[in-house]
Design the sequence.
């Protein structure tokens, strides 16, 4: 018997070099296309974010003032003098103290009220839950100008709603925004009310993520309501509390709109904040000193954020 015929093979081979080149071009073209899409954002970021950050850092080690813009070669490098002078600046220390009070009192107050409202919405108000969510969150997205108009009407010394209410009980209410004792606490309450909705939404999401089986098991074991809150709700909400604490602290360290719109830093600098004082120094043309204040504020934000992570990280992990 003769051997079976060999299977015909295709002798037309594709050149290896041509295939490799085509394969290499495709990833390269995709990379160029990706950079093309990213280029507008990259340019905007470099011009309007990275550029000003680097420029302000350089300004913070110089004696640059508004009058030096026409003669930039007249600027001298002073090193850390701008930072060291802040330690003896009474106005800066006053602003730092006001900001510290605003943060130390405002952050826990805002978080406590947010958690309290979130627990109320999560447990009892099921039918009108969406309506209350919108109502509590509305101040977060409302213009600070509109909010300030309402609060000024409420806090008027003679005809304000708050003093009128206190008058029903024979209490003569003070001039809330022009009194050194009450001006800063009033702004703290206003800030907590304005930001309550944000924390409420986050806490509500965290509460709804806790399995209901855990509460049922705790109830069967005889745990009372406070015990369930302390040993079940709080530990399960640690990641949510960390997020709300960091975001709220960052916002409150930089609080600016409240004193700018409501009190202009008065009376007698009792509501002057670090951010507002920095803004004023830029307006006065003290660019070097103002830039140093801005970086001090940045360091404070970083340190406080690290402190929150140190405090709650072990519980989160």
Sequence:
């Amino acid at each position: 018997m003769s051997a079976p015929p060999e299977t015909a093979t295709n002798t037309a081979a594709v050149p290896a070099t041509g295939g490799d080149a085509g394969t290499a071009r495709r990833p390269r073209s995709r990379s160029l296309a990706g950079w093309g899409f990213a280029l507008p954002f990259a340019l905007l970021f470099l011009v309007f974010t990275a550029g000003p950050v680097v420029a302000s850092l350089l300004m913070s080690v110089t004696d640059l003032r508004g009058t030096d813009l026409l003669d930039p070669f007249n600027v001298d490098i002073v090193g850390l003098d701008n930072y060291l002078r802040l330690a003896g600046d009474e106005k800066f220390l006053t602003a730092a103290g006001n900001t510290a009070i605003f943060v130390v009192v405002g952050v826990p107050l805002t978080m406590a009220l947010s958690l309290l409202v979130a627990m109320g919405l999560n447990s009892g108000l099921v039918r009108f839950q969406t309506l209350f969510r919108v109502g509590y969150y509305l101040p977060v997205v409302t213009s600070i100008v509109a909010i300030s108009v309402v609060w000024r009407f409420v806090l008027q010394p003679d005809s304000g709603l708050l003093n009128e209410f206190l008058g029903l009980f024979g209490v003569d209410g003070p001039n809330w925004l022009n009194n050194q004792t009450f001006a800063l606490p009033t702004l703290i309450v206003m800030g907590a009310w304005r930001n309550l909705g944000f924390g409420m939404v986050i806490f509500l999401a965290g509460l709804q993520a806790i399995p209901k089986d855990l509460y049922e098991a705790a109830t069967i074991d005889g745990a009372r309501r406070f015990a369930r809150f302390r040993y079940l709700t709080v530990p399960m909400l640690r990641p949510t509390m960390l997020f709300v604490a960091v975001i709220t602290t960052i916002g409150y360290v930089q609080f600016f709109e409240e004193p700018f719109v409501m009190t202009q830093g008065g009376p007698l600098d009792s509501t002057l904040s670090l951010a507002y004082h920095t803004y004023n120094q830029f307006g006065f043309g003290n660019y070097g000193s103002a830039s140093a204040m801005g970086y001090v504020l940045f360091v404070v934000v970083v340190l406080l954020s690290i402190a929150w992570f140190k405090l709650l990280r072990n519980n989160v992990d």
Summary: Residues 154 and 160 are 5 Å apart (CA to CA).
